[in-house]
Amino acid sequence: MKTIDELIQGGVEGQRVFVRADLNVPLDGTAITDDGRIRAVVPTVSALAEAGAKVIVASHLGRPKGAPDPRFSLAPAAARLGELLGKNVSFATDTVGDSAKATVAATANGEVTLLENLRFNAGETSKDDAERGAFADRLAELADLYVGDGFGAVHRKHASVFDLPARLPHAAGYLIATEVGVLKKLTAEVERPYAVVLGGAKVSDKLGVIEHLLEKADRILIGGGMAYTFLKAKGYEVGISLLQEDQIPKVQGYLKRAEERGVEFVLPVDVLVAGEFPDLETKAPAHPTTVAADAIPADQEGLDIGPETRKLYASKLADTATVFWNGPMGVFEHPDYAEGTKAVAQALLDSPAFTVVGGGDSAAAVRLLGFDENAFGHISTGGGASLEYLEGKTLPGLAALED
């Protein structure tokens, strides 16, 4: 995989360099509520601009249905990217149309342009190779070189991620190089003890990674909504908690394999429960109660790990050398159910381990709960991509950058 430094050393002055970034940031109207993914691409864009390239940045945002939708415009991202770069970022109001062509043509050496949302064109996400390829051809007309730096999208076989690199000389940006280097430390070069903390809503989202990590990890700690499927698999009553009944046989199989392989599976010993889901808009007090994990009332829902579980999980992380964490321990967006996620984040900071926060809600929780991002070993920009890499899958966007 060619690096961006090699690309720059070969000379990029005056060249149109297409940077596939991941600027898929959360918006409240037009206000960006978390700019972490924009900040992550700044080193790559800065280096290319300083080397005299005409930098053409492109990204998706949200899930528009292959047509323009003002709710998913990248205009706010263009403004924020400009602030972070300390220079104006020109904005094209389409992806491959007249605005894109004119804006790119007007981009001088060292300047930066951002194209409108790639997913406003159906060819970006099409499952039809010809349709996707046709869109990639039109994108290729805008550039001379390609830099892949949108790690959060490399698990997608999309035109700008998979097809476009085949049409242009290409290299990996700084963010992708960093992300891949970190993931190798979680797979091929693991320091032990190696603990994995998995949370989030659905156990089905994590089945592949659990299966793969049973061969790699020393301990697997489970929290969040997915924990209740594990508790049910052990025969516990889980009330009205989130439950994927159809996954219970698989979960039971994992628990058995973990025992056979000597992998320690750690489940909640107590949970915070309430009769209804909290109001995340008003943050009105929820008045949860704490119960043992094997004694959840039939009319109650588990919404966070309890205080004894927080202590247990902290003790299981205290002597680790490597920790990967993906998924919150509860409904962290509400203050009454944030303590479990907060405790895990703090345990990672207190641990001597190399700590990796696996993107998505975990990264959002770290920021929302006020932790210093730089205190962790690495905070990934791609939750889904990280999980698929850890499952051992080939990621289309990484394969496309290999020579």
Could you characterize what this model shows?
The N and C termini lie close together (6 Å). Helix 2 packs across helix 3 (75-85), helix 9 crosses helix 10 and helix 11 runs parallel beside helix 12 (339-350). This protein has helices at residues 4-9, 36-50, 75-85, 98-105, 129-140, 159-163, 174-185, 207-213, 227-233, 248-261, 307-317, 339-350, 360-368, 383-390, 396-399, and strands spanning 16-20, 27-28, 31-32, 54-58, 89-91, 112-114, 145-148, 170-172, 194-198, 219-222, 264-266, 270-274, 289-292, 301-305, 322-326, 354-357, 378-379. The protein has 15 helices and 17 strands. It is an alpha/beta fold and 403 residues long. The model has no long low-confidence stretch (mean pLDDT 95).
Write the layout of secondary structure elements.
Layout: H1 4-9, E1 16-20, E2 27-28, E3 31-32, H2 36-50, E4 54-58, H3 75-85, E5 89-91, H4 98-105, E6 112-114, H5 129-140, E7 145-148, H6 159-163, E8 170-172, H7 174-185, E9 194-198, H8 207-213, E10 219-222, H9 227-233, H10 248-261, E11 264-266, E12 270-274, E13 289-292, E14 301-305, H11 307-317, E15 322-326, H12 339-350, E16 354-357, H13 360-368, E17 378-379, H14 383-390, H15 396-399
Parallel strand pairs: 1-4, 1-7, 4-6, 5-6, 7-8, 9-10, 9-15, 10-11, 15-16, 16-17
Antiparallel strand pairs: 2-3, 12-13, 12-14
Helix pairs in contact: 2-3, 9-10, 11-12
